[in-house]
Description:
It comes from Loigolactobacillus bifermentans DSM 20003. Keywords: ATP-binding, Nucleotide-binding, Transport. Pfam families: ABC_tran (PF00005), DrrA1-3_C (PF13732). This is ABC superfamily ATP binding cassette transporter, ABC protein. There is one protein chain. The strands form 3 sheets. Strands 6-7-8-3-9-10 form a 6-stranded mixed beta sheet, with helices on both faces. A 4-stranded antiparallel beta sheet has the order 2-1-4-5. The chain has helices spanning 44-51, 73-77, 95-105, 112-120, 134-146, 164-179, 191-197, 215-220, 262-269, 284-293, and strands at residues 4-15, 18-29, 33-37, 59-64, 67-68, 80-83, 152-156, 183-187, 200-205, 208-213, 223-230, 243-249, 252-258, 274-280. The protein starts with a strand and ends in a 10-residue tail after the last helix. The protein is built from 10 helices and 14 strands. By secondary structure, it is of the alpha/beta class.
Amino acid sequence: xxxxxxxxxxxxxxxxxxxxxxxxxxxxxxxxxxxxxxxxxxxxxxxxxxxxxxxxxxxxxxxxxxxxxxxxxxxxxxxxxxxxxxxxxxxxxxxxxxxxxxxxxxxxxxxxxxxxxxxxxxxxxxxxxxxxxxxxxxxxxxxxxxxxxxxxxxxxxxxxxxxxxxxxxxxxxxxxxxxxxxxxxxxxxxxxxxxxxxxxxxxxxxxxxxxxxxxxxxxxxxxxxxxxxxxxxxxxxxxxxxxxxxxxxxxxxxxxxxxxxxxxxxxxxxxxxxxxxxxxxxxxxxxxxxxxxxxxxxxxxxx
Length: 303
Ligand SMILES: Nc1ncnc2c1ncn2[C@@H]1O[C@H](COP(=O)(O)OP(=O)(O)OP(=O)(O)O)[C@@H](O)[C@H]1O
Ligand SMILES: [Mg+2]
């Protein structure tokens, strides 16, 4: 039985006349890392700020640990850690002082774990925050969040300023949270990060969730790229409805196949004398571009 930690049902948010969230429905289950992706301005941060009780919803429902995100915000925040993309710190305090302040505000204490994280993220905690680069400001917030004992961690583009080594540390820490059975909601534009860590993904566009599921589910709904060398012409495949973008030169053919029709296409290929075959599943980038670019996503992408 999976237990829902975050439940969002038909959430709406208006800023004056502008409807930033039209219909957001998603669930983050206990023990999973949920990736929240979508183009700039799609509504990811607005959804997260509503979950945190910073913004008041205009319609629908949102709960965390079964409690209402607005009326029960204080109780929820005792079990939650949050890192925004733009981290603002007190300019005259040192990084170390701010980490301890964040921990205190969350009812936590500086622990050996905090020191371990400071070493791992290579942060010079003696410097004043006003001297920190964007990446260093993010490190301050990440160290405080990772050394907080919480049940749910919410990250809104937490690594946009981190170098690749630090990005790797971030990923290791998130995977450690997952191993410890914690739940994570991660909004990110770094698709390799999402691909590596997330159990399920929700795609938002124009204030609406347009797809949720595991990456495997989404790949199933998309197309696999095939390159094949055959002794006989594969030209007849071009007529199959599941085959797209068919191109042939001599014995080599390349095309995309609706993933659910792969078996059918392999059956059609077999009698043609297959000498070599390469199949490439869609990357998250492919899915991303497909979902982001199209005004209407094709019928095979609907559940
Ligand atoms: N306080 C606000 N007042 C008015 N409009 C807002 C406000 N906050 C956000 N919006 C608008 O709501 C929409 C969603 O913004 P949001 O910040 O949630 O997008 P996002 O998905 O987080 O984008 P990004 O990937 O760039 O961070 C945008 O059109 C934005 O301009
Ligand atoms: Mg945002």
